[in-house]
C-alpha cells in the first residue's frame, strides 16, 4: 500500500498493469474498489493507478469535505501526478470522478495527455439537484444492496462518509459553490465524454450539452449510448473499455 501527502493528510493509491500510466477516479460515496471487477479489461494495455479521494476508502478521514469538492479533488490528482513524476498521464473519471478529472486538467494541463469523463452530467447542476440528492441518499441508506456497497467501499464508518458527501453535494446548489475552476470549454487536452440516455442519475440534456461543448472546443468529443446504468464504465464495461482504450491510443 502506498500513500502521498496532501495538505498534511494521507491519500491512498495503488499501481498495477503495464503501459502508459492512467489514473482511474471513483465517484461520490465510492472508492477505488469500484474498479476492482473491470481492471482486467485495462491492465494489459495501460498502467492503472487508483486513488481513494481524501476522506474515502483507505485515505485519511476529514471532519468535513471542502465546499468546492470536485475542484479540491482535482488538486489531489495534480498532487498525486507530481508525486509520481511519470510525465504526462491519462485520466479516466466516472460520475463525480469525471468532474474531478476535468478540474485537474483545467488546473494543470501540462501533466495530462487525455481525459475521459464517464457518466458525466454536464457543466451545471440541474434544478432541484439538492432535493434529489437528499431523496436518493435517504432511499439508499434503507436499501440492503446500497448499504453493502457503501460499506464495501468505505468500511465501518461508511454512514459518516456518505453523510459528509451528501452535505457537500446539497451545498453545491444551496450556496452556489463552483463546480469547475474554469469553463470546461477552455480545456487544453483532449476530453472524451461517455454517457447513457438510460442513466437515471443524470438529469441534464446531455445530447445538447455534448454537442454544445464539441462546437465550442473540437478537442471535446463524446459518445452517447441509448442504454446503460450508472456508472456506464461498469454497466457496459467491455464496450466502454474498448472505447476508452481507443481514445487513449489517439482515436476519437
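Sequence proposed for the structure above (252 residues):
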Amino acid at each position: 500500500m502506498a500513500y502521498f501527502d496532501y495538505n498534511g493528510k494521507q491519500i491512498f493509491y495503488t499501481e498495477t498493469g503495464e503501459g502508459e500510466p492512467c489514473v482511474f477516479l471513483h465517484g461520490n460515496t465510492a472508492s477505488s474498489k469500484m474498479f476492482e471487477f473491470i481492471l482486467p479489461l485495462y491492465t494489459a494495455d495501460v498502467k492503472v493507478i487508483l486513488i481513494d479521494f481524501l476522506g474515502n476508502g483507505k485515505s485519511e478521514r476529514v471532519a468535513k469535505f471542502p465546499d468546492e469538492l470536485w475542484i479540491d479533488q482535482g488538486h489531489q490528482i495534480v498532487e498525486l501526478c507530481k508525486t509520481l513524476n511519470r510525465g504526462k498521464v491519462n485520466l479516466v473519471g466516472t460520475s463525480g470522478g469525471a468532474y474531478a478529472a476535468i478540474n485537474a486538467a483545467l488546473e494543470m494541463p501540462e501533466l495530462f495527455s487525455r481525459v475521459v469523463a464517464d457518466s458525466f452530467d454536464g457543466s451545471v447542476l440541474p434544478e432541484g439537484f439538492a432535493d434529489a440528492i437528499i431523496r436518493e441518499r435517504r432511499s439508499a441508506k434503507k436499501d440492503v444492496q446500497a448499504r453493502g456497497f457503501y460499506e464495501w467501499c468505505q468500511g465501518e464508518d461508511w454512514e459518516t462518509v456518505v453523510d459528509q458527501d451528501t452535505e457537500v453535494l446539497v451545498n453545491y446548489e444551496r450556496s452556489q459553490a463552483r463546480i469547475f475552476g474554469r469553463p470546461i470549454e477552455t480545456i487544453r487536452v483532449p476530453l472524451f465524454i461517455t454517457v447513457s440516455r438510460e442513466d437515471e442519475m443524470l438529469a441534464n440534456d446531455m445530447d445538447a450539452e455534448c454537442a454544445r461543448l464539441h462546437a465550442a472546443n473540437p478537442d471535446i468529443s463524446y459518445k452517447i449510448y441509448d442504454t446503460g446504468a450508472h456508472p456506464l464504465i461498469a454497466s457496459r464495461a467491455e464496450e466502454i473499455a474498448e472505447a476508452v482504450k481507443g481514445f487513449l491510443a489517439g482515436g476519437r
